[in-house]
Amino acid sequence: MKDKIITIEDARLPAASVLKQRSARVNFPLSSEDKEVISTLKEMLFAFGGTGLAAPQINVSKNIAAIYIPQIVALIRENAKEYPLHVIINAEYEPIESEGKDSDFEACYSIKSTAGKVSRYKAIKLQYQTEEGEEISEVATGVYARVMQHEIDHLNGVLITDRLTKDCFQGPVEEIMRIRKESLTEEKRLLLEEWILEKGGKR
Ligand SMILES: [Zn+2]
Question: N or C end of the chain, less CB within 10 A?
């Protein structure tokens, strides 16, 4: 399923790829095409084991993303809670600047070369529509707020490589993931390794 994902390293893509564009708003009721995009995103994100996947990453320039914070992520990350697999449509956020920012490890399914510690707002005012068209407006914090900022960035054509400024801790994905693992307690590291084996892939 990973071959459906477009990456910035993909030489077949024109320079101004869909990853770098602001995606289009989605109208309700959803078209059958929109519903297909939604089920593809959900299916893929579930198979990958989280945490977010946006429509532009499968070459669809629409404001749709899937979010899923499984138990393992909630156990390993600081300030993380589990969230079931769900879809956000026409999503946007406003930072709550008074809460400040923090930096934490992020990687992206659409970037094979680089990962790093991205600075994000600790709290945001989040707005989106569910698959059913229900308007949700809420304050998000912790890892959920971080994942939302990463995915809403995708919907606006912004990638972690745009957020990783020179002073940010960053490097090749493999190396960053190794350092990230080393930064965990032994208990958390074992959980992560077990999960990677379960998923049969690298992470
Ligand atoms: Zn991403």
Answer: N
